[in-house]
Specification:
Layout: E1 6-10, H1 14-26, E2 30-34, H2 37-47, E3 51-54, H3 63-73, E4 81-86, H4 91-99, E5 104-107, H5 112-135, H6 137-153, E6 155-160, E7 163-168, E8 172-178, E9 181-186, E10 191-194, H7 199-207, E11 210-214, E12 217-220, E13 224-228, E14 234-237, E15 242-244, H8 250-259
Helix pairs in contact: 2-3
Length: about 260
């Protein structure tokens, strides 16, 4: 039997909190509620919802603080979908919510059908992601193993000057595209400029567990220290550098990090 989707409502106004709870339960969702931002933050960790509906102006923690705190706490986990429900309509407010990684921004007073449609859209995307994870479990879980085994024992030939330099794949942190050239960054801080495009090395690197996270970067997933959430987010690598993650690669990157 398919698991019922769980939704957490974080809203400090009791009447609206109850209205939302009733609406969602009638439509088949398992619902939990929180009366303020701090209660909501703790409830996300305890209830583990698939989706969160969160007000912005609340006592103890506002909605932005809740999302920011959850971003840090669950930086390498698959986050619940996050919808802001608020009367604040300023463009800067909307930009701030989206910058933090909110999935949607619904204004009060809301139309029930619009809210339900947005919820189902976000949950459908989540189900697709879970199905993708299940159907590709072997490929996803094997990539880190290849990185652990192949990268440690094998070397990659990097053209330098008139010859070829052989570098351990485990010593390569990332490869960066630079027009018709590319740069290899090593764990000791060395950068090797190569007069060939990055795509020439992509297949070999991916076989060793590396991953293209952006059109300009292929990353050694064993060298990822932290994922920082955002529209696409970015990776903090073990050499201290940051690499942007493209929005379309975000979910695959999170899955790979969870499997690693």
């Amino acid at each position: 039997m398919e698991e019922q989707n769980k939704i957490l409502v974080i809203e400090d106004e009791p009447g609206l909190r109850m209205t939302l709870s009733d609406l969602l339960e009638i439509n088949g969702y398992v619902v939990s509620t929180a009366k303020d931002g701090l209660d909501g933050f703790n409830s996300i960790l305890e209830f583990n919802p698939h989706l969160v509906i969160c007000d912005i102006n609340m006592p103890k923690m506002n909605g932005y603080e809740v999302l920011s705190s959850i971003n840090k706490r669950m930086s390498e986990e698959l986050m619940p979908a996050f919808l802001f429900l608020t009367a604040r309509v300023q463009l800067e407010d909307i930009k701030q919510g989206l910058k933090l990684g909110a999935d949607d921004y619904i204004l009060k007073p809301f139309v029930s059908t619009d809210l339900l449609a947005s919820i189902e859209m976000r949950l459908k995307k989540r189900r697709a992601l879970i199905n993708y994870s299940s159907s590709n479990k072997e490929a996803i879980t094997e990539a880190p193993n290849r990185a652990n085994n192949v990268a440690i024992n094998e070397k990659i030939g990097i053209p330098v000057g008139e010859g070829i330099r052989f570098v351990k794949l485990s010593d390569v942190v990332k490869c960066e595209a630079e027009r018709a050239y590319c740069n290899f960054y090593l764990s000791d801080g060395e950068k090797i400029l190569v007069s060939k495009p990055m795509k020439e090395f992509e297949e070999e690197l991916e076989r060793a567990g590396f991953m293209r996270v952006h059109k300009s970067f292929i990353v050694n997933m064993n060298c990822v220290d932290t994922y920082v959430r955002g529209k696409g987010g970015y990776l903090v690598l073990t050499d201290g550098s940051n690499v942007a993650v493209s929005a379309r690669k975000k979910e695959a990157v999170l899955l790979a990090l969870q499997a690693n």
